[in-house]
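Look over this record as teaching material.
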Amino acid sequence: MLYHAVALPTDIKAAYLVPISDLHVGDPLFDEQKFMRLADWIAQTPNAWVVLLGDLMNTALKSSKSDIYQERLNPQQQLRYAKKLLLPIKDRILAAVEGNHEQRIMREDGIDTTELLADELGVFYSPHSVLLKITLGAGSKNGKPQCYTVYATHGVGSGRTVGAKANSLRRLRDIVLADIYITGHIHWMTAFQETYYVPDTRNNKITETKLTFVSSSSFLKWGGYAEEKLLVPSKLGVPRIRLDGTRKDVHVSI
């Protein structure tokens, strides 16, 4: 886990954080048109920012579960094409982490394709997870920007039930304390919040704190491996996380 501080403009009242995950470029079921609509929205929305959560490339190998003979592009072509798709929004990308599909090549050949992509785009890269400090606006009582901490990682596990998926996401709070936790991997879009109380011994009071958990979905249409394994179809696309710059407040649209 690497720490990365990002200062967004102080004159904006809110920012949208968009977790992009599981494009699976190279897979014949990649919904490119849906992704392009999202990229256009990001490019046209000045206060929209992105974190890349991995599995951007499918990278099927002979030893992997994906069918190498169904791939539309080889791994090098996938890397080149992923760069082409992301170039128009590269200045909005705050950070990138790898996914398990990119790890296939890392294990086989020691080449980190996500790091190569991040270098090409000029994006901050942290292999497995990243802890972001995001500041924006100037809405606090002392006129300083609002601050949000975000822990982002690709995610692990393959639970089939809603409870199993939610528990996998919720376990991130056992690793590091953050305002927002974000994963991808399971191709399931959801968001929920929890509240806990922190003793403020300096001011002799109790402070209420909220944790927000967000799972991003994929851009992979149902079929192929999902159909073979009888995985439930899921909504494609991404959630949008709204960070308020006038007060400490998080809202998620899915």
User: Anything to note?
Assistant: DSSP finds six helices and eleven strands in the chain.
